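User: Second chain of the day. Same drill as before.
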Amino acid sequence: MPHTLVILNRLDIVQATVRALQFKPQLRDAEFMLRTPAWAVRLESWWPRRRALRWPADWLGAAGQRRNESRILRRTADARVVYNVGVPSFEFHRQLVAARERHGFRLVTDMVDAQWLPWFRQFGWGHIDRMLAESDAVFVTNRPLAEYARRHNADVQIIPDAPQVEAFDAQRAALRPPAGSPADLTSVAGDGGLEHVGPTRPGRPIRLGWIGGRDTVFSLHKIHEALEQVAAARPNVELRVLGAPEDRLPRFEQLRWSTLERYDQAAMVREGLQMDIGLFPQHHVTESVCRGALKTKIYMAAGAVAISERLGENEEIIVDHRNGLLADSVESWRDAMLWLIDQPERRAAIAAQALEDMRAHFSAARVGAQLQAALEQVGRGGSGGVATVGAGSQASRAAGANDLAATEVDSSPQRVEQGEDGRPG
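Assistant: Same format as last time:
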């Protein structure tokens, strides 16, 4: 594989893990460098949020970014391929283009959202069309993004999101019920043995879960009525929300709920394994269609049954009532939740099928190999058109890093503040 330089914007945005860091074993010859120092991210979290008081932290963070950008640009001299994972800076992109003219590497831009929409432009994506056009190749997560990217670049490749099923499996093994004890919810594993899938115990409330961030939790308002109707009909239900403060939630009247505003990968795995049903409501707009199904995949990898909006990539991943459920109205959301609550055996079977699908089609090993092949292809001159690299079959369907003195990156778990997909919207 040609020497690849992977540029990450910052470690508290999960795009860094989902699109790059989890594939370190597969990208054996890649070098990972960080634009925003880990200390700057920690400083942001410690500093007062009032804008008038933030200028010292902002100034120090910007200085750290400039220093790291200079180091990254120097390292491009030794790269065959430079993979830009989520750096929202047109100025830095132009510096990479200028470095490409000097050193001859090929530049890949990773796009994971509808970043041409007004919401995203305020976060540094105001020139996304030029960034796509001036890249040698563009990697995206799904077909709607590929269709847009193709307007600006001939070499577009779909690299699906991987939901870190290996991390869930490692903790799932630790939660396996002792031999001879009553299993919680079990399913027949591939080797014929029993495997722990879900957390439900007799007398324990059914846990509905939502994993995301403060800027995406508004989607729960779409199913507010359905959640209240379920709570009225089934008092043994609770909602657990990861990634959002209390004041962003709907004003629930009957539903019991709790939140964990900030979480890292370890907390996401731990919390996900305690969910019976994962919720992914969406509004039917362009941003939702382009967002992809990472949230759905995370629930499936956790062993929870995903109820997802009948929209976009969810319809490619979920075969209704086989490995998840689809819904698109207050009534269908309510009925889907009630059906799963009242059918524990079917819930267990659906969860088991979903987990099997994630292991078969979206493991880090499988998707990492696809990413490695795509980077090799770009290094050889590109595909010359849209290529789907290993999408799953529908039928089956920065704390913890070093101090970055050299801006190199490790893959230790990082704090998450904007959602499991690392996207600001």
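The longest strand covers residues 106-111.

User: Great, on to the next one.
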